[in-house]
Amino acid sequence: MTALLGLEGVEAAYGESQVLWDIDFAAETGRITALVGSNGAGKTSLMRVISGLLKPTAGRVIFDGADIAKVPAEARVGRGIALVPEGRRLFAGLSVLENLMLGAFSRRERGAEADLARVWQHFPELEGIAGQLAGTLSGGQQQMCAIGRAMMARPRLLLVDEMSLGLAPVIVDRLAATLRDLNRADGTTIVLVEQDVDLALEIADRGYVLDTGRVVMNGAAETLRDDPRVREAYMGMAN
Ligand SMILES: Nc1ncnc2c1ncn2[C@@H]1O[C@H](COP(=O)(O)OP(=O)(O)OP(=O)(O)O)[C@@H](O)[C@H]1O
Ligand SMILES: [Mg+2]
Question: What is the pTM of this model?
């Protein structure tokens, strides 16, 4: 099994306050990897380290065989790493289409039309409101737009932080189906951060559990789903 992304001994801090300790993490090529853990465990911080928004204080970040620890965030998009950030972070004053096209900025080659067609295919309701300001969209539409924006970068590694938060189950199912399709049809490698642990481990092939900035468990998604410790701590089930 080859890993498109590998972290070795990664540590990170906000100023004096360390939030990640000795993180070993791998996202296998063509697979979906879930990253779960309680509030404040460090999931978003780890995604920020991978996308280049938070500089590690120690360790190595290997993408496609190269150490990218010193590569700035913008250049990582060009290499094929796209982030759907926690809270979606659309430009509220720009239209749906303008937000989507921002996702294609890093690509030198043309062909944004084909990628746009793919976004409309997955999220037909966005096409009808392409001119509408992103700030006026429903939560579900915003998440579709945020995922669509990342799709426009044609990523090899797609990072999705808290996709399902605050959304209706029927919308979450559709977003999950889109991720599965990007993974199976395009071979996109995905790292999924989710507060809905059941959902994350259902979609994913492998999973990591973070607790107060450390990896405390990792393994096949179905093994983690059956693990009583995971069920008790993160799924609210006694066994
Ligand atoms: N910009 C920041 N400055 C200082 N501390 C921060 C900052 N962002 C996060 N932290 C702290 O880092 C720790 C890890 O936070 P992080 O957001 O990575 O966790 P998380 O697992 O994504 O949590 P959540 O489930 O709430 O999204 C927390 O203690 C948090 O308070
Ligand atoms: Mg978070």
Answer: 0.94
